[in-house]
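Ticket #4471: structure output looks truncated?

Reporter: J.K.
Steps to reproduce: submitted the chain below (541 residues) through the standard prediction queue, then opened the result file.
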Amino acid sequence: MSGVGDYAKFATPEAFEIVAQNIRSVTNQAPNSDEQFANAVLRLVRQIPYVKSSVKYPVEAMVENSGDCDVLSLLAASIMKAGGLDVVLLHYKNLNPSHMNIGVYLPYKPIYRSWWTAPTSFEYKNKTYWMAECTSRGDWKVGDRPELLANVKPSFISLEGAEKSSPGRISSSLDNQLIPSSIDLTVSSDNSIVQSQERFLTFTGEISPIIENEIVTVYIGREGLPLETYESTTDKLGGYSFSWNFTQAGKYSIVTSWSGNSVYAGSDSQKLTVFAGTYEPIYDDYFSEAGGARASAAPFFGFYSQSPKNVLASNVSGAGVLLSGEFMVLSGNDTETAMVELTIPKVERVMYFPRTRGMIRVVISEEQIITQPVDNNQLGFILRQDGEEEYSASVSVLENKQLSQISSLLQESKASYINASDVAENNRWYKIEATLSRNWTSAKIFEMNNTLLKNIAAPESPDSTQMGILMGYPPNSILAFRNLKVSTLDASVQTSTPKQEQYQRGEFSWLGEGVAVSAFLAIGLVAFGYAKRQRKNIQTK
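Returned output as attached by the reporter:
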């Protein structure tokens, strides 16, 4: 955070409107209902254990069931403001450590305070705000003052900077336990997934139970940028749809959320992560000899030094490693070979010639314009043995150097791979499973009904330290992954030998010379912490 004023950005009153309405439904029948409402909120907040922490969103405090004075104050202030009260944050910066609670505006002296003390108040902008302590160290009511704060004046933090809009809501019920709900999320594209500077994906799903006209919040986050939120409304079948054009290279994460209601608890979808590459060619591996006798440049599109390449990367210790998950290829109908025109710039070098002891400017290569096919994108599900009972698993875009290394290992019988691209049809989900251990290696591709399409299996060779699944796909495609999991194999299950399966090595004829990654999409392992991402954006400003 840049200053204490940024605390207001963590207050999210709209997210707690249902909670505030439920509490108001009880306290509105009582005299002095505003004060009764505020005290009820304090009792609710004090049920959360006091645990020292960094600043976080109120919803995080509820999910994690912990928070310190500033977090609990933000939670209480959010609920009270959602219930119509005028509140401010009170920051006691002169204490060591500093402290925070809230001030509640009431047009009268609090009635339900502790009888043995006088109520404590502060004047701010011609209004009287009564102190309200939010920690669990006492049964504080509006107007009560902890002894620690005697003769300590706070600074005021207005909540005018609180979130003006919060598409998500916190569901609650006073009468019954909330019924669990669910929301799913998948992705599709039209046949022109990559055209000029437009790349549209359509995210769809359903909520259960089926309820019409419910707001579904779509969260889209890109590394290094503030979280963006959008809304979609469910139809008669509980379905929703949202289209999004991602044009800038980078890594994005998408989650959809339904906040629930007074009967059903809210729910979040699984996470999708979109990797978008660049349209511009990037020259790599330029090499030359004096006089221009030999010159070459490898043009690439997509994910290189400036872009993320990994969908998943994990290290494990144990008897072996298992990588499993599901994937789908989203691609247009255009199967023609894409061509690209590239300009290799003129290259000059100042070189030293020992014989003449002179420095001479040498033209290594004149400017060249070449037209060539755009090679397939290439992706690998890769398992490696890194040491004694040390393994790694990755799902990532492969560069030429990595492909060359894999090719060499295959030629030397030090790796086992299968090619998934010849069995994967567009717009269909498939399952993959790969195992590497000290006794056995295997890789399998299944239909979603568990029909085995392709496999490789063999006893582990002492020289083989790598295996996996390779996948090639056209540049106008997007790859989708979900339920990716990395597990450690127990030693006890490594002693048995699986049923005899066809053993194949070295299926890599599809590997191309160049790599042209346009974009692909991955569905991650667990729900994304969106409040934490947004919190990080605030803290790093």
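Triage note (M.O.): checked the attachment and the full token line is present. The chain has three domains: 4-166, 182-271, 278-523.
Status: closed, working as intended.
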